Amino acid sequence: MKEKSNKRRLKEEEWDQLTGLLKKSIAEERIASRMIETRGGTLFLCDVDHMKRINEQYGHQMGDECLKRAAQILSYMIGSDDILSRCGGDEFVIFMPGCQDAEQAQEHCRRIQERFHTGRGKEKNRVPFSLTVVWEQRKSGNTYQMLFEHVWDKLEQQKRLLDITKAESDKRKDHYVADVRRVKEELTEQIRKQEAYCRDYETFKSIYRFLERGIARSGQKACVILLTVVDGHGKSPLPYEKDMLMEQLGRDIGMTLRIGDVYTRYSSSQYLLLVIDTTEGQVDRIVDRIRRRFVEGRQGEDVLIHHCYELQSVRNEQVMI
């Protein structure tokens, strides 16, 4: 009874507890034995990419899940004569005694890498990962240790290339991020006062047309208001009064409208207002607020008259020839 228990314990000690694969030392013994029996064979070394980053970002428990999945997938991809082992923290070794030529070895390598690449992101609630795979064919006189050292050197070279490629990619990304940051700085307005947006007429027209195009999709409401300064008889003020009145009216409009509204000087006695989220029924109240501010503290008989219309979505018109 005691002898059976010892045998079972020894057998259990041959296997890696996390992945269920052969331990490194046991695999080395078995591969060395197979190398004596056969002349050829190929040794593959597989490494889970960015394992440190996976552990840091998702936790070591999720990192362990990745290792178990890698072991399971690799075990499905080998033959009955092949030997698969976990030989390090995130490395796996495969010895294929029947793989005798470079073309066959390269095909096995391609299939393994492709299997992990195509499977990335398809399984829900699982971290996607990939493998780097290198291989070395056994040459006459090679021991297992010599073969492993050769394939390990190949893996380190491949990893260095991947690190260089990633560094160059990150550098390009950093460059683009800097571009976006610069664009944002160039485009963003530094608002000093919470006032409406006063622009020249051409800019006003561009904003109007841009908004007009978007109304069909957004359903947003907007109104255009034409404000005109007239004297008590309904006529245009005298030239020497007009500039002062229009300057004051511009300030009053900017302080009365919201920060998202736009206005512009349209003529010597008129302003155009583009008021967002507003219907024609609300225009009178807006103009009344401007009017009260405009006439406050003044003795003149100048008044404001207004006309308006609600913005409609742009329509494509076919020109008949």
Detailed description of the structure:
The chain is α+β, with helices and mostly antiparallel strands and 321 residues long. The chain folds into two domains: 2-175, Alpha-Beta Plaits, CATH 3.30.70; 197-310, Alpha-Beta Plaits (2-Layer Sandwich), CATH 3.30.70.270. 51% of the residues lie in helices and 17% in strands. The protein has nine helices and nine strands. It has helices at residues 2-12, 24-37, 51-58, 60-76, 102-118, 144-187, 201-218, 239-256, 280-295, and strands spanning 42-48, 83-86, 91-96, 131-137, 197-198, 222-230, 262-267, 270-276, 303-310. The strands form two sheets. Strands 5-7-8-6-9 form a five-stranded mixed β-sheet, sandwiched between helices. Strands 2-3-1-4 form a four-stranded antiparallel β-sheet, sandwiched between helices. A hairpin with a 2-residue loop joins strand 7 (262-267) and strand 8 (270-276). Helix 3 crosses helix 4 (60-76) and helix 8 (239-256) crosses helix 9. The protein is rod-shaped.
What's the SSE blueprint?
Blueprint: H1 2-12, H2 24-37, E1 42-48, H3 51-58, H4 60-76, E2 83-86, E3 91-96, H5 102-118, E4 131-137, H6 144-187, E5 197-198, H7 201-218, E6 222-230, H8 239-256, E7 262-267, E8 270-276, H9 280-295, E9 303-310
Helix pairs in contact: 3-4, 8-9
